[in-house]
Write a structure and sequence with these properties.
Order of helices and strands: EEEEEEEEEEEEEHEEHEEEEHHHH
Number of strands: 19
InterPro entries: DUF7918 (IPR057678)
Pfam families: DUF7918 (PF25534)
Structural class: alpha+beta
Protein name: DUF7918 domain-containing protein
Domain DUF7918: 9-255
Biased composition (Basic and acidic residues): 171-181, 315-326
Radius of gyration: 40 Å
Number of helices: 6
Shape: elongated
Strand content: 25-35%
Largest sheet: 8 strands, mixed
């Protein structure tokens, strides 16, 4: 969960396939950690909380906002501005009258209007493909491409305090909808992407799902007055989504074997936690394997003993080949003859 350190009670998460995505921070090594951790200062004013999440291909995702009673701005109306890849934008409001009941919501899709038809499109992690298109990076067109590509792979949530006034109900036909973004799905020039993300790895982009027709619904229109300056949100969350291979390449998530081979002193707090969790899981797996081996060995010994006992009983019941011989050639006759030949006959008459 991404909780801004300056605003406890304000939480933003990325939900992938209806499950909260695991978040990763830039590795912070012991001896180099500061009080802000993974909070970046922008223009000396805005504190941006940055996290990384895994973007699974073709998976639907949503942005979840949770406001708890600990949040210090419960008495204010709040405006949330969402930007994805610098292309998809949408907004949500959370009014102070609703904060008592909890200000939780999810952004799962965008709604657009075309020719009086309301359509809804889900947010999906797509594949970002590159090509070898030649681009003059120093030209105005090349610089513009680089600026656009710098926004790829980012989900941004900016939070403002506002005053909502002059509320009035409006019909579904009168309400404002999201702009229909021209989301690209083709390949992009590799050199421009590398320039925009120097030293980084990026293979994901956001796409929109198929259009689903929706019935227009009524809502409330109001006048929005900023308490915070429009260019100075009081809080900002940035989620950089990557494939797991990208996270490995950027050293955000160590490859499975790396943690065990590295010195403990070089591991971050998050890496130590993951290593402990992995070692415990390996221990459980090892114990189960040993128990299975012991069980199979015991069963094998039981079968062997039973086999030997059965064979022994069979040998006791079956006569030998010699026992099967009868008559004068039998073993009993042989013994009898042997005894007879050893009897000496003595003449008691004394005759010569």
């Amino acid at each position: 969960m991404a909780i801004h350190p300056d605003f406890p009670g304000l939480e933003v998460n990325i939900i992938v396939e209806d499950k909260t995505a695991e978040e990763f921070a830039e590795p912070v090594f012991e001896g180099f950690k500061d009080d802000d951790g993974d909070v970046v200062i922008v223009d000396h004013k805005i504190k941006v909380l940055e996290r990384y999440v895994e973007a699974k291909p073709r998976a639907t995702f949503a942005i979840e906002v949770k406001i708890s009673p600990r949040f210090k701005y419960l008495q204010n109306d709040l405006y949330f501005h969402f930007d994805i890849d610098g292309v998809i934008t949408t907004k949500r409001y959370s009014f102070r009258r609703d904060h008592v009941r909890g200000g939780n919501f999810r952004v799962r899709h965008i709604k657009t209007k075309s020719n009086r038809q309301i359509v809804q499109k889900d947010l999906i992690f797509g594949e970002l493909e590159t090509d070898c298109t030649h681009v003059h990076l120093k030209s105005s067109a090349g610089k513009q491409l680089v600026e656009e590509f710098e926004k790829l792979g980012k989900i941004t949530c900016k939070v403002y305090r506002i005053i909502a006034s002059d509320e009035k109900p409006v019909t579904g036909d009168e309400r404002n909808y999201d702009k229909d973004p021209s989301v690209g799905t083709g390949s992009v020039p590799e050199k421009a992407l590398e320039k925009a993300h120097r030293g980084r790895s990026l293979s994901r982009r956001t796409e929109l799902g198929p259009a689903v027709a929706k019935t227009p619904s009524s809502c409330t229109s109001f006048k929005k007055t900023y308490i915070d300056k429009e260019d100075e949100p009081f809080a900002c969350f940035v989620f950089k989504y990557r494939s797991m291979e990208d996270l490995h390449k950027e050293l955000i998530v160590p490859r499975p074997d790396d943690l065990e081979s590295r010195p403990v002193s070089s591991l971050s707090v998050q890496e130590k936690d993951r290593l402990i969790e992995k070692m415990r899981a390996d221990q459980v797996k090892h114990e189960r394997l040993n128990a299975r081996i012991a069980f199979l060995t015991q069963e094998k010994m039981k079968r062997r003993i039973a086999e030997l006992e059965a064979n022994s009983q069979r040998l006791k019941r079956e006569p030998s080949e010699e026992d099967k011989i009868t008559g004068p050639d039998g073993p009993s006759s042989f013994k009898k003859r042997k005894i007879i030949t050893h009897i000496e006959q003595v003449d008691l008459t004394g005759d010569a």
